Amino acid sequence: MRALLPLLLAVPLIVVAAEPASLIRATELKQEPATDAATVARLPENAAVQALERKGGWIHVKAASGEGWVRLLALRYAAGPARQGDSGAKQLFNVARTGTSGTEVTTGARGLDAEQLANARPNPAELAKMGAFAAEADAAARFAAQGKLMATNVAYPK
């Protein structure tokens, strides 16, 4: 194995295999990596998927009900890169791929680029969905009081 290490490190590593994951909440499987794309299916919380590729804040997945795109932050990947039962060679590839020997890494999504901003369109359906998350002021105040939260005034950025 030691003799192979210099050869392995000299070859660019391209990971093509699907990565097992599950959903941390129920989510829509989209046809394209966009919130206004057609919905292929509704996937339940804890549904098992295979993560195939990433595009911005979206992951192309294969699920029992079809293939499509879900938000990056809706996924929980399987246990750390060095999984029980991995051979020494497999662990070496995992370390080369992730830079660690067993630590999970969470990655955020980058912001919008100039082209995305220039081509942005309102999405009334998504705006209507946001209404479901609204809370009445008195209900929010009761929740804050239960959590012993205090109000803080923050100046609006200029």
Task: Describe the protein.
The chain is an alpha+beta fold and 158 residues long. It has a domain at 5-98: SH3 type barrels, CATH 2.30.30.40. The chain contains 5 helices and 7 strands; from the N terminus they run H-E-E-E-E-E-E-E-H-H-H-H. It has helices spanning 5-10, 88-98, 114-118, 124-130, 137-146, and strands at residues 19-23, 27-30, 39-43, 48-55, 58-63, 66-71, 75-77. Strands 6-5-4-1-7 form a 5-stranded antiparallel sheet, with no helix packed on it. Strand 5 and strand 6 form a beta hairpin. The longest helix has 11 residues, at 88-98. It is extended. The chain starts with a helix and ends in a 12-residue tail after the last helix. Mean pLDDT is 76; it is low at 1-16, 81-86 and 95-103.
Question: Which features does this protein show?
Answer:
single chain, 25% helix, alpha+beta, disordered N terminus, SH3 type barrels, extended
Helix/strand-derived class? alpha+beta
Write out the strand line-up for the largest beta sheet, numbering strands in chain order.
6-5-4-1-7
Order of SSEs, N→C?
HEEEEEEEHHHH
Taking the sheet with the most strands, its summary is: 5 strands, antiparallel
- Note the gap between the termini: 59 Å
The global form is: extended
Mean pLDDT equals: 76
Strand count: 7
**What is the CATH topology assignment of one domain?**
SH3 type barrels
Tally of alpha and pi helices = 5
CATH superfamily of one domain: SH3 Domains
